[in-house]
Structure formats: C-alpha cells, structure tokens
Amino acid sequence: MRCPYCRHADSRVVDSREADDGQLIRRRRSCPECGKRFTTVEEAVLAVVKRSGVTEPFSRTKIIGGVRKACQGRPVDEDSIALLAQKVEETVRAKGAAEIPSHDVGLAILGPLRDLDEVAYLRFASVYRSFDSLADFEQEIETLRAAARAREGAGQAGAAGTAGRTN
Ligand SMILES: [Zn+2]
C-alpha cells in the first residue's frame, strides 16, 4: 500500500483489528520512508448483478427500503425490518461468492418476510415474481394457507401432548 503522505511505494502493517462484527478489517500502517502512520479498511466486496447485467455494491439500506415499502401500513416495526435486512445480508454473504444475482437477493428476502408479515410478503412476492393475474395471487395464498395449516397442526399436536401429560 502506497504511503498517502510521501507516495513511498511500500508500507508496513503495525496493527490489524476486526470492526463491524468481522465485516471489516482496519489496518494501522506505518511508512518506512517518512515514518507517518495511516489507516486502511479492508472489506469483502459483494456485488449484486442486476438482470440487465449491471453490477452494484450490495446495500443493506436498499433491502430495508424495499422491505419497508412492502410493509407500508402493516404492524411491522423498524427494528424487525433492520433485523430482516441483516439476515438477508448474512444469507447472501454465506454463499461466499463475490457476485450474487439480484434474483438471489430477492429470494433471500422472501423467506424471512413471510415469517414477518404475510401481507407484506404477498406484496413483495407479487413484484418480485411479476404476478400478472389473480391466479398467481390465489396460488401464492394457497401456499401460505397450507404452510399455516401445517404450523397449526404441529401446534395442536404439541398442545395435545401437553394436555396428555397434565391428565
Ligand atoms: Zn511516507
């Protein structure tokens, strides 16, 4: 790394530490030529490839914006949205790829959003999956109902088990 003071071509790392929960590495460097110190920040680049082929840096803020729009008028607080965006970032970073299609980012949003609010999920899914008919909505709602029934069934089984132990 070139020294920003004297433009000497080399510098020495004197300290490295993680920041932002390990997402960043800050390095304190020292120039052997002029002796000045400076800091560099290293961060893994995660690029999102849009359908047009254009890439842009992954942005948690953008996820929050999209999800917030889908949650308009719904009883969802900002903390839940921020947490969802964090989950999405963890999911896409866990793939370990330097580039990720925007389609996959949308996919990573759908799961946690469905758990958060089904109406917001439907709104988001209708845009993301380009629903163009009522049938698309009907199919998605049927899937949601089936998932809810499965959850209810599991809940009742659990309740029955508890009752059995009490009696
Ligand atoms: Zn220097």
Automatic annotation (TrEMBL):
Listed A to Z, the keywords are: ATP-binding, DNA-binding, Metal-binding, Nucleotide-binding, Repressor, Transcription, Transcription regulation, Zinc, Zinc-finger
Which stretches are zinc fingers (unnamed)?
Answer: 3-34
Q: Which Pfam families has this protein been placed in?
A: ATP-cone, Zn_ribbon_NrdR
Task: Show the GO MF annotations.
Answer: ATP binding; DNA binding; zinc ion binding
Look up the record and name the cofactor or cofactors this protein needs.
Zn(2+)
Per the entry, the cofactor note is:
Binds 1 zinc ion.
Q: Which GO terms describe its biological process?
A: negative regulation of DNA-templated transcription
Residue ranges annotated for the ATP-cone domain, each copy included: 46-136
Hey, which family's this protein in?
Answer: Belongs to the NrdR family.
Sum up the protein's function in the record's words. Answer: Negatively regulates transcription of bacterial ribonucleotide reductase nrd genes and operons by binding to NrdR-boxes.
> Mind telling me which PANTHER family this protein's record contains?
TRANSCRIPTIONAL REPRESSOR NRDR
Q: What is this protein called?
A: Transcriptional repressor NrdR
